[in-house]
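Why run this: before we spend reagent on co-expression, it is cheaper to look at a predicted model of the complex and decide which construct boundaries make sense. The entries below are exactly what would go into the expression plan.
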Amino acid sequence: MTGTIQNEGTFLNKIAKNLGRAPITKGITRPVWKHAPQFEVLKHATPDDLVNELQEQCKRVHTQFHLTDSKQVAHLLKQVIEELGNGQLIIPKDDRFSDYQLFDVLNEKGVHVWDHQAGKKNIELAESANIGITFSEITLAESATVVLFSSKNHGRSISFLPACHVSIIPKSTIVPRMTQAAAAIRSKVNRGEVVPSCINFITGPSNSADIEMDLVVGVHGPIKAVYIIVEDK
Amino acid sequence: MAMKTSSAKFKDRVDEGIHNDFMRLAVSSAQERLHGRRLTAVDELGSWEDWRSLGEEIRQHVLSNLDFYLHQLAENVSKRGGHVFFAETAEEASGYIKDVIVKKKAKKVVKSKSMVTEEINLNATLEAVGLDVVETDLGEYILQVDDHDPPSHIVAPALHKNKEQIRDVFKEKLAYTKTENPEELTAHVRGILRKDFLSADVGITGCNFAIAETGSIGLVTNEGNADLVTALPKTQITVMGMERLVPTFDEFEVLVSLLTRSAVGQRLTSYITALTGPRDEGDVDGPEEFHLVIVDNGRSSILGTEFQSVLQCIRCAACINVCPVYRQVGGHSYGSIYPGPIGAVLSPLLGGYDDFKELPYASTLCAACTDACPVKIPLHDLLRKHREVIVEKEKMVPFSEKMAMKAFGIGAASPMLYKFGSKMAPSAMSPFKTGDIISKGPGPLKTWTESREFPAPSKESFRDWFKNRETGGKPS
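The model came back. Tokens follow.
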């Protein structure tokens, strides 16, 4: 369904008038920018270099870092869940959880898989869950950031309402920085794909320094964040 | 809260600021920390001048083609089912938002931090029709609970309060029983606001950058409050200043990188979110209805003028964090929701010279602001231009400036009088001198020397020294 647009004409005409020209509503293309420093950051980094960068940056954003492989990941995930104090788990409906053979551990601990047909119940379960577990779509080494795309199978609440957020990061998703993530999203757009209604770039736990500039970790979103990097199968 | 945060006179506001010792200590320590973090983040990144040039070029391109990009944005928002309302005035913007909310029969509104909603006096408009409006940014929430204390910084709004004051406010208003430990204070707020997020009918956000190509809204926070504001209520209303947009995700990325480093010295903040339209079909969370309100409120009249570059601003507050005047007088002295150098440039343009004519003079023109700006706004030049406009067109020079200039004019008009004046200064000032400094000056020096010391006039004037140096330092 298309939405409405109100008062556009007079508003834009005033802008054009003050800019001293006729209104323009089509035909503008971006210039080639004179500077492009964003492509230089971690330009020559190997996949292992990117993992190291990510690991270093995790220390600065109060995030636990684990590196493992596809054989060990289930065992490691179990340990992480226990260290975070167990409790109810919530995950998106995502084939990678079965690809990585994680359901034995998840079921043993008690998991809710996001089910859009259950409606608001998902949000209630996310609110009472201790840990939300996601797979990163794109991972930014420079800033230790995971990128999540919302969908009917992946509710936004999974990474915000539980007390802890664990993100599983396939090594192949790691790129130097946000530049490459933006390019990947733009190539979706150019292919005619629909941009997800919510794209999250999440870096560690929620925090604030609003009281005397003292950093407090865990404000509205998760209080703890854990990344599990998995060497690809 | 509208643009103007105080009806007191500028001089009285400054006086209050200068005598608030806690506030001045808090401001200087916050400035140092934020400034230090920014420098570290900038050094690590490297090629900072190229980054700034890129940021400037992107912002200038968007401003020159603003109607094109706003049209593209509106088309793409509506294609995704969002409603776009272009508001020329603050009243139109807040009126539209009020109507949408009233029609929904909503009771509770949660908000994430937004300067433009302050600018359009949104909270008061909504509260006037009986709505419960809850600010969810921790700093904003503290101010709201403390009987709507005005913000004193655009990134850290409660910078002027210490933890003991916050504890006392919470005890009085929120039945808080614990200590002044920031973690305990924060945990208390988390508990209260979590219930508000879950029960709110409408979520209102600002907009760091909209993305024209996809019709997306970009939000940058550390707390994650904007995400809960947009994930849980059924209706989302986003309010943006009309200049806050970029062509595509590529430029969004660059400006976010500049913003987070310049504002808080982080490579990225904890939560950066790009929201497109209302929820997709089948989605359980996210809003069912999405409204984007694009606000002019005086911005279009800045376009095409010598002040146009101020619209490049990405609201990072780097200029505030390096400003020596802000450091001394604090945010409330400016009497505007936009303090510091950016506020001194922007407030007279958006709010008029009548209320804000003093602000362009609250500057030493040292240009630290211009050097700090990640999108290369020539802030100190714009402050100087304001002074020209105030003197030449508005004929409304502040009184103290007038008197000082008059005295200087009389003194400087005749070489004899000037010579006499500068020779007299050392003896006239001697009662206030301790060694080579003046720490309790009279008249126009009073305010200055309350916050710092002034070098005492030398017994030998520069003219005398210059003349004497030719004769080997002996008076000729």
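Chain B touches chain A through 113 residues (CB under 8 Å). Chain B has a mean pLDDT of 89. Bring this page to Monday's planning discussion.
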